[in-house]
Amino acid sequence: MERYVELDQVGMHFDGKKGRFVALKDVNLTIARGEFVSLIGHSGCGKSTVLNLIAGLLLPTDGIALANGREIAGPGPDRAVVFQNHSLLPWLSCWGNVHLAVERVFGARETLAQLAERTDAALALVGLSHARDKHPHEVSGGMKQRVGIARALAMAPKVLLLDEPFGALDALTRAHLQDELMGIVANTGSTVVMVTHDVDEAVLLSDRIVMMSNGPAATIGDILEVPLARPRDRLALAADPEYQRLRAEVLDFLYRRHARPEAA
Ligand SMILES: Nc1ncnc2c1ncn2[C@@H]1O[C@H](COP(=O)(O)OP(=O)(O)OP(=O)(O)O)[C@@H](O)[C@H]1O
User: Fold this and answer.
1) Under a CB-based contact definition with an 8 Å cutoff, are residues 191 and 34 in contact?
2) Which domains does the chain have, with CATH numbers?
3) Does the beta carbon of 259 sit less than 6 angstroms from any atom of ligand 1?
4) To pair with 17 at 20 to 30 A between CA atoms, which of 179, 189, 214, 234?
5) Is 72 near ligand 1, meaning CB less than 6 Å away?
């Protein structure tokens, strides 16, 4: 197993007016190249904080975070993030939004034609070639999210970091994009770390599900391997006893073993 991301005894605290808040404590996690890992846990347990530490948007206050064997000292083009709310620039077309990221990563060493080719290829990968000249306000929420994914993929990152990428979408669009993401990951062999609240999404997409305990001082409570064969078909899986077992394990962790204090 070739390790790509390593979190070693990682802790994160925030100092504010009301004193110190310990968000994460003793988080240990190794993610292999080509793995799809989901982070699941109750609201506020620190999932986004873990993702932001891998992205380099936050630096750990304890322990060490590594990407490709090097300490993560800030954001880098090897780790692209897709947020829940697409964060596209409204004055640029879908093509322009993707192209901007491509230029930033490859602009210094590639020709204009090569940059345009990368942009076209990323839009084609998410099925959006037809909407290339549209502006964000002219396309649906699902399409905006696909542009965000195209923008991240166009950077040819080593790791794709997804923070509830489909959280704001309706159930059908969400299912469609999950299937698309599975296809893209199968073709590109990307390493993916995804934050989600959705148990079915986690089981359907992941190789491993990292289940987090409640904060403060949240940590990894358990890690569930998802040995379901790929490609995965959501309809066939719905009736699969192994799928049901995995789903029940995550639900048991969230609602029995680590129920939120106010819900217990
Ligand atoms: N910059 C910050 N300053 C102070 N506290 C913070 C900061 N960022 C996060 N926290 C706190 O750390 C904890 C973890 O936050 P985080 O956003 O990682 O949780 P989460 O599991 O992603 O939540 P959700 O599922 O609701 O998005 C929360 O209690 C949050 O209030």
Assistant:
1) yes
2) 1-72+192-264 (3.40.50.300)
3) no
4) 214
5) no
pLDDT digits (tens, 9 = 90+) for 174-195: 898 899 899 888 988 889 999 9
Global ipTM:
0.97
CA of 162 to the centre of ligand 1 (A): 16
Beta strands in the chain (DSSP E): 3-16, 19-32, 36-40, 62-67, 70-71, 79-82, 159-163, 191-195, 208-212, 220-225
Is pTM, for the whole model, over 0.90?
A: yes
Helical (H) or strand (E) element with 34? none
Angle at alpha carbon of residue 238, lines to 232 and 244, rounded to 5°:
100
Record the tokens describing residue 154, joined without a space: 């166009």
Q: Is residue 259 pLDDT above 90, yes or no?
A: no
Backbone angles phi, psi at 15, to 5 degrees: -100, 120
Say if residues 174 and 166 touch (Cβ distance below 8 Å).
yes
